[in-house]
Amino acid sequence: MAVSDVDTRLLRHFVAVAQDLHFGRAAARLYVAQQALSRDVARLERELGVRLFVRTTRKVTLTPSGERLLARATELLALHDAMLAELRDTARPLLVDVMHDRSTALRVLEAARPLAPDAELEARFHGGCDAAVRGLLAHRIDVVFGRLSGIRVALPGDLTRRLVRLEPLGLMVLDDDPLARHDTIPMATLGGRTIDTSGGNPEAPEWVDLGAELVGEHGGIVAPDHHPGMAAVAAAPPEETTHHLRATGWPVLTKLDAAPIPGTVVRPLTHPAPLYPWTMVHRTALTHPGIDALHRALDRLIPAEGWLDPPVDAWLPAADRRLLDAAG
């Protein structure tokens, strides 16, 4: 029998014994009977026509042939396992967290789907980057978009990060608010005024931190945390958001791409123009046609939409200001 026809199970059993140099311990690690393991090793030796181990009553040692096989078998099994992992990854849906409806991330996902017609890319809506990253680290999510600087979890080193967009921010105000009469709202207007920055949102501390720094730096007042927590408010229907605005009178800090809310308008903030930094994150080792499609979609969207062309008077939180240099 040719070596190429050897059962990978036999190779795995050989490698386990070669690593432990003890049939009993190797059998326990493999959850097989020691007698069955001995039979498999003997069968492998017959098929290869070489002796792999020297067995005595006191110890087990590798023969020179066994030492050569161990190096190659380890490489072969690693390649075999990697191949199967890649096949499983490409066959399953790619789970992409887009944070919320009408987000920059959702636009990227929608642009990527036609570029990978044979792959399934599914959206998830965690409502915050911190929550999505926790899903990524738990292997429940494959790709995350959002601001990384303010998340509360540490990121491992095996992640690929790509700056996607510096998205302008604005204020959501009631359509009869005096601020609604203006095309833009200068940041100086925030002085002494209470601004809702979604305080208390346990899913998106990175957004809450950005808003608190922005409002505080420009003389505004950060609204108290929502109770019983922003998670419930974030899931509320549009009419509840309008009711909240009327009940409090607090303009709401928001992204310009936010879904329209009846009875409200969104006006860009200027002088300076605050920005929200979107970054795409995924495991570097992940292989899936959807990953390539997402990157190709960004290759088109970023220059076409000017997503990394910040205004001259751009504002970013202190932790993100190096991204302006990265954007060129």
**Into which percent range does the helicity of residues fall?**
40-55%
Quick one: how many beta strands? 13
Q: What is CATH's topology name of the largest domain?
A: D-Maltodextrin-Binding Protein, domain 2
Mean pLDDT: 88
Quaternary status of these chains? single chain
Instruction: Please identify the structural class as seen in this structure.
Output: alpha/beta
Pfam family, one: HTH_1
Family: Belongs to the LysR transcriptional regulatory family.
GO molecular function: DNA binding; DNA-binding transcription factor activity
Keywords: DNA-binding, Transcription, Transcription regulation
Give keywords.
DNA-binding; D-Maltodextrin-Binding Protein, domain 2; LysR_HTH_N; nine-stranded mixed sheet; about 325 residues; two-stranded antiparallel ribbon; 2 domains; alpha/beta; Arc Repressor Mutant, subunit A; WH_DNA-bd_sf
Task: Please tell me about this protein's structure.
By secondary structure, the chain is an alpha/beta fold. The protein has two domains: 3-91, Winged helix-like DNA-binding domain superfamily/Winged helix DNA-binding domain (Arc Repressor Mutant, subunit A, Orthogonal Bundle), CATH 1.10.10.10; 94-326, D-Maltodextrin-Binding Protein, domain 2 (3-Layer(aba) Sandwich), CATH 3.40.190.290. The protein contains eleven helices and 13 strands. Strands 3, 4, 5, 6, 7, 10, 11, 12 and 13 form a nine-stranded mixed β-sheet that branches. Strand 1 and strand 2 (60-62) form a beta hairpin. Helix 1 (8-20) crosses helix 3, helix 1 crosses helix 4 and helix 2 (23-30) crosses helix 3 (34-48). The longest helix is centred in the N-terminal third of the chain and has 28 residues, at 64-91. It is elongated, with a radius of gyration of 28 Å. The mean pLDDT is 88.
